[in-house]
Amino acid sequence: MSVLIIADLQEGHLKKSNAEIISYGNEIARISGTSAGVLVLGNCSDNLSTLGAYGASQVYQVADANLQAVNPSVYVSVIAAVIEQIGADVIVFSNNPSSKSVAPGLSARLGAGLVSGAIGVPDLSNGFSVRKTVFSGKAFAEVSINTAKKIITLNPNSVSIPFVAKETVVTNLSISVPASTRKVTAVNKIEGEVPLTEADIVISGGRGLKGPENWGVLLDLAKVLKAGTACSRPVGDAHWRPHHEHVGQTGVQIAPNLYIALGISGAIQHLAGVNRSKVIVVINKDPEAPFFKAADYGIVGDLFEVVPQLTAAIQQLHAEG
Amino acid sequence: MKILVCISKTPDTTSRIAFTENNTRFDEAGVQWIINPYDEWYALVRAIELKEKDPATTIHLVSVGGADCEPIIRKALALGGDEAFRIDIVSDDSYTVARQIAALCDREKYDIVFTGKEAIDSNNASLGGMIAEIYPAEYVSLATQFTLTPEGCSVTREVEGGEETISCALPAVISCQKGMAEQRIPNMRGIMGARTKPLHVVAAEAVTPLTTITRYELPAAKAGVKLVSADNVAELVRLLHEEAKVI
Ligand SMILES: Cc1cc2nc3c(=O)[nH]c(=O)nc-3n(C[C@H](O)[C@H](O)[C@H](O)COP(=O)(O)OP(=O)(O)OC[C@H]3O[C@@H](n4cnc5c(N)ncnc54)[C@H](O)[C@@H]3O)c2cc1C
User: Fold this and answer.
1) Domain A196-320: what homologous superfamily?
2) CA distance A17 to A153
3) How close does chain B come to A316, measured CA to CA in Å?
4) Is A232 within 8 Å of A246 (Cβ atoms)?
5) Does ligand 1 have an atom closer than 6 angstroms to the CB of A277?
6) Running DSSP on this structure, what letter comes out for residue B39?
7) B162, A10: Cβ pair inside 8 Å?
8) From-to residues of CATH 3.40.50.1220 in chain A
9) Among candidates B132, B136, B210 on the partner chain, residue whose Cβ is nearest the Cβ of A146
10) Would the CB atoms of B216 and A134 count as touching at under 8 Å?
11) Which structural domain range is residue B92 located in?
12) Bridge partners of A252?
């Protein structure tokens, strides 16, 4: 049962998430007594042998310029052709907007059971069972994949498997890339921002910030912690912050190491999106705010007084090194 | 223009999540059912907006599930849509559901299929991509804007750290999220009209599920919050650095 890890690329660069999916794929290979390879689709400006640092020994590449943009039907055809050529049984993706476009189609094409949003290493003691979040983070499900071929998309920041650096062999595959009339006509990237699902630390603001003009205190804290920024739904709805920052049951679901909530009450729909964070800190002036029940650390106080002090204290910690 | 909107029944977002039968089944006792918010707020309303612009548009709704889906199908018809299908099978396997809807697409030849970006209970975000592969049609996931063009459609979608706009041919399956449309509330005329709109019950195709949910689990409860005084912010920094080791 060999494992194929689909490398995560953005604008031709390898992303940090590759460390996690490669160690995850290697772990599946180890427990099932087989080997794992990494597939890079399109041209990559980074040196592919750097993937060896995360434990990739075999890297395959289909270096075709028509694969720079993720076109679902084209990607499905190319990955299916690669699988036919090299014979993989378990296909691993990082769960993100690209894999959401490709993995479901690949599942239907190959008749391969898909678990999307996995958060654990498969349990092989009785078939092949993978844990995932359901009810938007309010519960977990064990999903058994009944088919010979299996596809898993792994939620970022879900597993921490130590990786052993390996010597990498890069093999170029020649696969014909089907033509397509589909085109990317515009790209609008927000510069200099840490993508929310990849951020180790996230600072999030709610209605307690009173208005968009007050976001400076939050952004200053985010800056010293190199953190991503998020918000509650009413904040996104009121356009105080861009709507892709909205976390929760009907927004983005995240699992950073540290989530700091400022002026957020902690409604059940909000908690659903953030309760897999390793450590939650809540700063709220209302001691009865429900969020304190879901928090690890808390300060009852006015965020406009507490947060600048917090930022200064962290700066001091960094200065002391 | 012929549009299909996929509607799924999900528990209300405030529902208590609990399981029965040795944690193998969702406990439906006391649960309020709603239309999956992404299906209602974005997929369905965008379809209605397209019909308002071009009255020659036909909107069909489909829900795959048992008779207990019918109240939410009627509610969706009250918002808009001309007729509805309920495909009579209960399954938690996305592929089984996608095959049913793809079979309907094959018969009815839709130009556009709208789905929500995911169901808030299963969180699979995979139905649309599977339908597109089987139908077959173009697939655009996580759409925040959709417009018809002479070539087909132009769709803006979320990518990591921003958005991209794609132009592609029809038929297309579009998974919808925030930005696509503004949430609406059904009016009295809609509610009255929905009662007489056709709701066809269709027998399901036999499909072998690719996956099975074997067990559910609730997250472990937190140990309890450690409160730090607002006068001693440095102590919080010390705890985060030395105890939690996250900064
Ligand atoms: C179907 C549905 C889906 C939903 N999905 C989501 C979702 O995905 N994400 C989401 O976030 N919400 C969601 N909601 C909304 C949710 O129910 C809450 O209304 C929302 O999360 C509240 O946002 P908030 O905490 O920012 O605001 P509030 O509830 O108004 O809380 C503001 C908090 O700020 C505190 N505060 C005020 N001033 C200060 C100060 N100076 N210093 C410190 N603290 C202060 C207050 O004590 C209060 O606790 C959903 C609701 C529904 C019905």
Assistant:
1) TPP-binding domain (3.40.50.1220)
2) 12
3) 10
4) yes
5) no
6) I
7) no
8) 196-320
9) B210
10) yes
11) 2-217
12) A247
Residue-wise pLDDT tens digits, A211-254: 999 999 999 999 999 999 999 999 999 999 988 899 998 888 89
Q: In the beta sheet, which residues pair with residue B86?
A: B63, B201
Looking at the CA of residue A248, tell me the nearest atom of ligand 1: 8
Tokens of B141: 């996931």
Question: How many helices (H) and strands (E) are present in chain A, helices listed first?
Answer: 7, 17
A126: Cβ contacts below 8 Å, ≥ 6 apart: none
Q: Give the sign of the dihedral formed by CA B128, CA B134, CA B135, CA B138.
A: positive
Cα separation, B44 vs B81, whole angstroms: 8
Contacts of A40 (CB under 8 A, 6+ apart): A7, A9, A48, A59, A60, A61, A62, A63
What average pLDDT does this structure show over A30-56?
96
- Residue minimizing CA distance to atom 17 of ligand 1: A267
Burial code of A210-237, b = ≥16 C-beta within 10 A, e = fewer? eeeeebebbebbbebbebbbbbbbebbe
Pick from A150-154, A156-160, B231-235: least confident = A156-160
Best of A189, A299, A307 to disrupt the B interface (most B CBs within 10 Å) is: A299
Tokens linked to A101 = 């476009």
Strand partners, A115: A152
Q: pTM here?
A: 0.92
> Would residue B71 count as lying in a domain?
yes
Mutate to test the pocket of ligand 1, among A203, A207, A247 (most ligand atoms within 8 A of CB): A207
> Domain with B147 in it: what CATH number?
3.40.50.620
Q: Residue B49 carries which side chain, given as an amino acid letter? A: E
Residue B57: inside a domain: yes
The residues, ordered by sequence, that sit 6+ positions from B73 with a Cβ below 8 Å of its Cβ are B7, B61, B63, B84, B86, B199
- Would you say residue B236 lies in a domain? no
Q: Do the domain assignments include residue B156?
A: yes
Domain boundaries for CATH 3.40.50.620 within chain A: 3-172
Whole-complex ipTM: 0.95
| Residues within 8 A of B (CB atoms), A 255-274 only | 257-258, 268-269, 272
Calculate Rg over the CA atoms of chain A.
21
Query: Using a CB-CB distance cutoff of 8 angstroms, which residues of chain B are in contact with residue A142?
Result: 213-217
Strand boundaries in chain A, DSSP class E: 3-6, 9-10, 13-14, 36-41, 58-62, 90-94, 113-118, 129-134, 139-145, 150-154, 169-172, 183-189, 201-205, 228-231, 258-262, 279-284, 297-300
Task: Indicate the class that CATH gives domain A3-172.
Answer: alpha beta
pLDDT at B200 over 70: yes
Query: Do residue A197 and residue B169 have CB atoms under 8 angstroms apart?
Result: no
Q: Helix (H, G, I), strand (E, B), or coil: what is residue A81?
A: helix
Min Cα–Cα distance to chain A from B198, Å = 31
